[in-house]
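[scheduler] slot 2 assigned
[scheduler] job type: sequence-to-structure, two independent chains
[scheduler] chain ordering preserved from manifest
[runner] begin chain α
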Amino acid sequence: MMDRAVNEFDRARGRMAGDFRTMITDGEDLLKAAASVSGEGFTAARTKFEERLRSAKAALAEASQPVFDRTRETAAVADHFVRGNAWSVIGIAIAAGALIGFLSAKRKATDARRG
């Protein structure tokens, strides 16, 4: 499930990168048109730039939606697991905390001997 979300995100990221490159190119065209072309050329470049901007916004929204959906699904599954296995989760949390504390104390002792 997580791999699928990562793959979807990678594909969307590639599409967005392309859209942003196009938007930058169109922005450069817009600046050139503003400096050297009549009102018609400027209007055409501006319209093209606005279309690309809308496309980039849509790509961003499209790319982020599956990630948000997967996050909600994962959170719901985790919530269901925790509610059904509360004591197991508490035990795992205590064990993880004890391990982190042990490793931290060991590191402090090693640092004290060196310093």
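[runner] end chain α
[runner] begin chain β
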Amino acid sequence: MIVSTRGRSLLRVMIDLAEHAGDGYTPMKDVAARQDISLKYIEKIMPLLSKNNYVEGVHGKGGGYRLTRPPEAYTVGELLKLTEGDLAPVACLECGAEPCGRASDCRTKPMWAEFHDMVNGYFDKVTLADLVKKSMKV
């Protein structure tokens, strides 16, 4: 599996924040209810988003989180890399991987490298705004 539950949940939270961007700060209890994700689980994701300046938060009454940029300025690729690190399909293509002793003779490495480029290229083209538009079409 390329994308973990954490990565999928992060995307759902970000889509929800994008859909409610005009509402100011969105309480995470509201996101949890709409997305059917436990509030405790969301609270483990939000510091990652906040620390990397993808969202900003306010505590207390009227508090919650909001996006720091417009939805079209976020790519799925950058968001998934927060939780997944690298989207490499095999260990030898991961960022900082030890060189494989079979790399020069590996018949499958070019295939995996092309797949890696396709996946990353696709996710780097899809924006949060695209996902909001697609989720609105029912």
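[runner] end chain β
[qc] chain β: The chain has a mean pLDDT of 91.
[scheduler] slot 2 released
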